[in-house]
Amino acid sequence: MFSFSCSQGRAKGNRLALVVRARVQLLLFTIGCNAQKHCGKVVLLGIVAMCVCGIGLDRIQMETNAEKLWVEAGGRLEEELAYTKGALGEGFGASQELIIQTPNIEGTNILTPNALLLHLEAVRKATKVTVTIDNKKWTLKELCYAPNLPEIENKALRPIFDLLVPCAIISPLDCFWEGAKIHGPEKNISFTPEKKLLKWTTLNPIGLLDLLKIGLDIFHNREYETIRTMFKEAGITSGYTEKPCLNPNDRECPRTAPNYRSKEALDIGASITDGCTGFAAKYMKWPEELIAGGVKKNRSGTIRSAGALQSIILLMGPQNMQRYYQDNDGQDLSTEKATQILEAWQRQFSKVMNAESSRVRDEDSTVLAFTSTAFNDLLKDFSKSSTVQLAIGYIIMVLYAGWSLKRWTNGVQSHGGLGVAGVILVTLSVVAGMGLCSFCGIAFNAASTQVLPFLALGLGVDDMFLIAHTYAAMSDIHPSDQVGYALGSAGVSVLLTSFNNMVAFLMAAIIPIPALRAFSIQAAVIVVFNYLAVTIVFPAMIAIDVKRKQDQRYDLLCCFSKTVPQRISVTPDLSTDTGNSTAAQPPYIGASQLPSIGAVVTANGTISLPGAVTVHAAAFAELGPKTVYNTLLPLSVSELNNQTTQSMKSSRCERKHGRWHWLKHLSLEHFADHYYGPCLQKNSTKILVLFMFAAMFGAGVYGCMLVRDGLDLMDVVPRNTTEHKFVDAQSKYFSYYIMYAVTKEYDYPNGQKLMYKYHEAFSRVRNIIKSPDIKTQPFWLIYFRDWLKDMQQAFDSDWSTGCVTYEGWRENASDYGILGYKLLSQTGNPDMPINRTQVRSIRLVDESGIIRPASFYNYLTAWMNVDTMGYTASQAFIKPEAVNWYNLRDVREQHSMRMEAAKPITFAQLPFDLFHLKTTEDIVQTIKEVRKICDEFQAAGLPSYPSGIPFTFWEQYIMLRQHLMVAIIIVLGITFIVIAGFLWSVWTAIIIDLTLVMITVQLFGFMGLAGIKLSAVPAVTLILSVGVGVEFTVHMCMAFLTSTGDRNHRMQTAIEHVFTPIVDGAVSTLLGVIMLAGSEFDFIVRYFFHLLAALIVIGSLNGLMFLPVLLSFAGPHPEV
C-alpha cells in the first residue's frame, strides 16, 4: 500500500527515500490496522498497563536536600564533598540562624540608638525561644554553639563556668555594653551571701576570679593563676563592663562605661568600624562586613551610615549535639533525635521572629529572620504539586482538545470526543511514566512535580492532535483502512519528533546537576510512554470513533444516533474499465480521485441521478442507521425530471447555507488555505519575513551577550512572604560567606614552611577579608605555634626561678611551666618517649617559627586537649582526633609525663571570610582564584581543596556553558543524522538544523533581554528547544518534500496540510504550561513558564513563517 516503484511510468525522484519511508509507513499502517481490529482489547490492556505503572507514584521519593539537588555530580567537587563528609561525618558543624534589620524607608541610616535597641529586643526574644520534645524542654543554651573550656580540677566550678560561658552570637550589639543583655545567663547563679545574681551586664570575669580566690577562697592560688592566664590569653578580661552604652541613661549602665559620666550620644558608625569583639576578644572577632550592610564611609574609612544590621545565632550540628551530650551528660541522644530537636527549635524561632516582625511594623525599621530549616521547609512546599493547578490545567486542555476537533456543522463527522479521550490517554501515560521512574528509584524534586506534568502533557497532546487531524481528513478512505492510513501518514512525523525530544532530554542530562538530571531522565521516559500511547492505544480509540460514525452516532453524545433517509452512494467502478490500465487498483476509490454521485432511493424503487449517465459503479448502500451493504452495480439511468433536479439543487443549497456554515470561515483550515498560504506566496511578504527574522536573529545575538550566569535565591522563595523580604535584604546588604581550605594527608611536621606559604597565598584573593596589614586571619598551625611559644615562655620563667629542674617540678611551679617541661621532654620516639635531659637543649618552636618536627604530634595532643578555646577558634576540625590527655601535676612519670602522639593528620581546615560576593561573576572569579592556589600547591606536594557554600553551589557555573554547548551540538548532530538518514535528504536536514539554531539563538537572546540568568534550569530549556523545535519544523519539511509542483505551490500545499496541527500543537503545549504562571514561586514563573512560553512562540513563528519562506527559496527537490 505504502510501497511502490518509482520506475513505473516517467516518474523521477528519490527512490531510496521513498522505499525507506514506505517500509516505516507500512509497519505503522499494520499497527494501526491491528489496533482497529482489536480496538477494545488494545484500549483495555493499554489502560491497565499504564495504571499498573502509575502505582509506582505511591513509592515516590521526594528529594528536598539542597546539596543533593544542586551540587554538581561527578568530578572533583563530588569527591571533595565525599572526603569531607567521610572525615567529619553527617551532620557535623554548626547552623546559622540569621536576624536582619532594615529601615522601612530605603536609604535611611539605621545606625541609631533606637534601631539598635530594637535589634536588641529581637535578639533577646530569639535567645528565649524554647521547644518541648518528649516532655523535655530545650533552650537555646542547650542547643547553641559555645566555646569549649579546658578541664578544671575543681569539679564544683565546672557547671558554674559552663553556665557563664555564653552562646556564640555574632552581633553588632557586641560593640556596646547592651550586647551583654543577650547572654544572660537565664539560670540564676550566685556566690555571695547577698545572693547577688551573676549576669553578663555586670560581670567582670577577672573580677569574678578575684572574688572566688580572695573573697570566697573557693580554689587554690595555682588553679586561680591557671584560669586567670587562660582568660587573659582568650581576651576574656572585663567582659562588657568597659564598652560604651547605647543608652547611657540606662540605670544598669556600668560606671566603667566610657560614656557613663558624659552621657554623650555615641558615634555608632565609629564604634562598629573594623567590627566588634565578643566576650573572648582574641577568638571572637566579628568583621564589620558581617554585622552591618550597605555601609558608607568617609575618607578616613570610618562608617558614617548603614542600611542594615545582622545578628547570627550559631547552633550545634546534629552530630556535635549528639557527641556533646554523650560526653558530658552521658545521654544516649541519636543524631536523628538531635536533628528533630534542632529543627523544632528553628521552626519556633521563625515563628517568634515573624511575630516580632509584625509587632514592629509601625516602627522605623523591620526585623526579618531566616533559618536553614525554614529554607528546607520552603523546598518541601516548593516540591508539592498543586492539585488545583493540575486540575485546572488538565480541564483547560480537555476543553481545548474537544473544541478544536469539534465540527459544529456535522455532529456525526465531528471528533471532539476523540480529542477528549486523547488528552485523558496522554494524562495516563504521563502518570505511568512518572510511576515507572518512581519504581526505578529516580528521586523526584520541585521541577519533577511542578513542571513536568504540564510540559509532558503539552508535548504528548501535540502528537495526538497530528494523528487526529490526519484521521479527520480521511473521509474518502474506506472505514476499515482509516486508522491504518492515519497512523501511517502521521506516524513518521510523530516518530521523528518523539525521538528528538527523547534525545534532547537525555542530552540535557550531560549537565551534572542531580535535580536536572533526574528531571531530564524522567522527561525522556515520559516521552517514550507518550509515544507508545499515541501510536498504539490512541489508534484503537480512533477505531472506536470510526465505528461510532458508521453507526451515525453523535460526537460527545454517542448514546444518540442520527436518523437519515435510505441513501445510496455510488462511485464508478474502474475495475470494469477496458482501458490500458494494467496496475491493480485500490479496492476503494476516494472522492479526491473521482467524485461520488449521490442517489436517493424513491418509494417505487427507482434510483434518481442527475443527468443521463450509464456507468458501472461500486455502490455503498445505507438502508437504515445500522444496516450497511456493499455491492457492484451496473447502472443505466435516463434523464431525470426537472422536479427531482430542482429538489436536489435545493437540498444542496440548504446544506451550503445552513446556520452553522459560517463557522467554517473561522477555522484554521480556512485561514491557512485562503489567507495565510496565499499571503506567504507573495514576494513582498517573503522579503518582509526575511527582514523580520534577520532582525530577530540580530536581537537574539545581542541578547546572548547580555546573559549573565546565576540563580537568585529570591526566585526560589515565594513572593509576599517574610522569607522573600529577608532574602531580598540579605542579597542587597550582605554578601558574606565562610570558606575553608582543606588539607589532606601530608607530612605536616616537616612541611610547615609550605603550609605557611599556602596560608599566605590566600592574601592574593581579592574577596578574602584581611587585616589592615593585608594579612589573612590566623589558622590552626599559627594558633598551635603561638601556644607552644607561651608554654616555652612559662617554662623559661619557672626554670629561672628554680621551680622546674631537670628532675621535675616543685610545688610552686605554674601549670603552664610544668606543661612546658613535659612538652620539652617528649622525644617523639615510641621506644624512648621521655628524655628529661633535653629540656634545655631544644626549643618547642625554633627562631624561624617551625615547631620541632620530631615531637610535632605529641605537642598536637597537648594543644588540642589543653587550649580548647584556641583549638575551637581555629575551626581546624583536625582528623583523626587526638586522644584525651590532661596536664596533671602527678609526679609519676608514666601517668603525668608521657603524651601519646596524635595520629598523622588526614584532614584539617583553614577558615577564611569572603565578602563583596554580590554577583555570580564575583563568586566564580573567587572560585577560580582559590582553585588556582590549591592547584599550585597540589603540584608542590600539598594536597588540598576549597570547601564552603560558594564552591558547593556555584562551581557548576565554571563549566556550565561548556556543558550546554556540548549538549546542544550533540542534539543538533543527532537530529541532522536522523533526518538526513530517514528522509535521505542532506539538504532538508541542513535546513531543519539551521531553523533549530535560529530558535535556540533567539531563545537564548530572549533570556538576556528579559534579564533571565543562565543556570542549570534554563540550560535544560535551551537544550530542549532543539527537541521541541523539531515539532515545528519536521512536519512542514515532510509535507513540502512529499508535495509536487514548483516551490511556491509545494509551500502552499505544506501549509494546507500542517498549519492546523502545528498551531493546535503549539496552543496545546502553551496550555500545558500556562498554569505555571500562577505559581507562588518566581523560580517556576521566571525560569520555566517564561522560557517555555517564549520557546513555543519563537518555535511557532520560525516553523510557520521563516521555514516556509526559506523552503520557497531554497527548499529541497520533491521526492517524486
Automatic annotation (TrEMBL):
BP GO terms, sorted: negative regulation of smoothened signaling pathway
Compartment annotation: Membrane
Domain SSD as annotated: residue spans: 386-544
Annotated transmembrane regions: 388-405, 417-444, 451-473, 485-511, 523-544, 687-707, 964-984, 990-1012, 1019-1042, 1054-1076, 1088-1114
GO terms, molecular function: hedgehog family protein binding; hedgehog receptor activity; smoothened binding
Pfam families in the cross-refs: Sterol-sensing
One GO cellular component, as annotated: plasma membrane
Keywords, sorted A to Z: Glycoprotein, Membrane, Receptor, Transmembrane, Transmembrane helix
Membrane topology value: Multi-pass membrane protein
Stored SUPFAM superfamilies: Multidrug efflux transporter AcrB transmembrane domain
Superkingdom of origin organism: Eukaryota
InterPro entries: HMGCR/SNAP/NPC1-like_SSD, SSD, TM_rcpt_patched
Keyword DNA-binding annotated: no
Family: Belongs to the patched family.
Protein name (database record): SSD domain-containing protein
Organism: Nematostella vectensis
Lineage of producing organism: Eukaryota, Metazoa, Cnidaria, Anthozoa, Hexacorallia
